[in-house]
Design goal:
Blueprint (H helix, E strand, L loop, with lengths): L1 H9 L11 H17 L1 H4 L22 E2 H20 L10 H8 L13 H24 L10 E2 L6 E2 L5 H21 L2
Antiparallel strand pairs: 1-2, 2-3
Helix pairs in contact: 1-4, 4-6, 4-7, 6-7
């Protein structure tokens, strides 16, 4: 998760090492696939939830489970991408992200033959990325105590909170993801 988190914290508006970088999106997609297969809680999740995200393969700290900051980080990545679309940024299309973007739109790959996402698809893609971020937020909500307390991790099998209790990093990740979601949604109304 260091790559998507690094991209988020670099805060580049576009180009390499931004959320619009096709390689960054492809990296996040591969991580989603990996954790979806690795964690039992992801195989039994609700249809409105994205996979819970961990730190890296073979992590063994406590349960090596899903981390709140990683799952919020994935949400924030998608919210920042939606925000970039809403700001009017050029969304590059390449071999590295054509299939991912087409899947987000529910379109065949051939529909994205241009070098960038064309106007007819922009609004739909904005909504698709915003919705995708919301599915990560829903996964966290499913594994958050009624009190709202967030530990460091939630177990990859049971979903029970584990490791450091009331971890500031987890709360900070929530605040950052929520702020990015709010910024994107404001652009939706424009």
């Amino acid at each position: 998760m260091a790559v998507p988190l690094g991209v988020i914290h670099a805060a580049r508006a576009e180009g390499p090492h931004s959320v619009l970088d096709p390689k960054a999106l492809a990296t996040l997609a591969r991580l989603e696939e990996f954790f979806e297969k690795k964690y039992p809680i992801n195989q039994e999740r609700a249809s409105d939830c994205a996979p819970a995200m961990g730190r890296y393969a073979h992590d063994s700290y406590y349960s090596g489970g899903a981390y709140y900051f990683s799952t919020f980080g994935a949400a924030q990545f998608y919210f920042l991408f939606a925000e970039a679309i809403g700001r009017g940024a050029m969304i590059p299309v390449s071999a590295g992200n054509r299939t991912l973007l087409a899947d987000m739109l529910g379109e065949p790959r051939a529909a994205l033959a241009a070098a960038s996402v064309e106007p007819p698809f922009r609004e739909r893609l904005f909504k698709a990325f915003l919705d995708r971020g919301d599915t990560f937020m829903a996964m966290v909500r499913a594994h958050t105590l009624a009190s709202g307390e967030l530990s460091e991790q939630f177990d990859q099998t049971t979903g029970a909170q584990t490791s450091a209790k009331n971890l500031a990093w987890s709360y900070a990740a929530f605040v950052a993801a929520f702020a990015s979601r709010r910024a994107a949604r404001r652009l939706m109304a424009c």
